[in-house]
Amino acid sequence: VQLVESGGGLVQPGGSLRLSCSASGFTFSGYAMSWYRQAPGKERELVARITRTGGSTDYADSVKGRFTISRDNAKNTLYLQMNRLKPEDTAVYYCSGNGLRGQGTQVTVSS
Predict the structure, then answer these.
(1) In angstroms, what is the C-alpha Rg of the chain?
(2) What is the pLDDT of residues 21-49, one digit of tens each?
(3) Where would I find the beta strands (DSSP E) of 12-66?
(4) How many whole angstroms separate alpha carbon 25 and alpha carbon 88?
(5) How far apart are the C-alpha atoms of 79 and 51, rounded to whole Å?
(6) Strands, DSSP E only, in the chain?
(7) Can you tell me the distance from the alpha carbon of 73 to that of 23, in angstroms, rounded to the nearest whole number?
(8) In 3D, which of 38, 26, 31 has the Cα closest to residue 106?
(9) Percentage of the chain surpassing pLDDT 70?
(10) Among residues 76, 92, 84, which one has the least CA distance to residue 42?
(11) Are strands 9-11 and 105-109 parallel, antiparallel or unpaired?
C-alpha cells in the first residue's frame, strides 16, 4: 500500500511541470486525493484536492488558475499540472489519500 510521486525538478519561472502520483495496494478510485507542499521553514500547505470521481476540485488561492489537479482511476494515478510557475512554488510536493502520504518530489523554480 503506497503512493509514489514523480515529475519534480528544476524549472525556470514561468515554466511548467506535471507531477504524477502512482497508487498501489488499495482501491484508488474509492478515495478523494490531495496534493500538499512544504517549503523549508514553512508549514505544510494544501495545494489541491479532488473527489473520488474527479468531478469536483478545489485549490489554494495561491495556485488557483495556474495548477490543475486530475486523476485517472483506470491507471491509479493522480496528477498535478503546474503552469506559470513562480519561485514561491518551490517546495517538496506530496500526494495524499487513504491516510497515506508519498515520499515527495522536489520542485525548484529558479532562474
Answers:
(1) 13
(2) 999 999 999 999 999 999 999 999 999 99
(3) 17-24, 33-38, 45-50, 57-59
(4) 34
(5) 13
(6) 2-6, 9-11, 17-24, 33-38, 45-50, 57-59, 67-72, 77-82, 91-97, 100-101, 105-109
(7) 10
(8) 38
(9) 100
(10) 92
(11) parallel
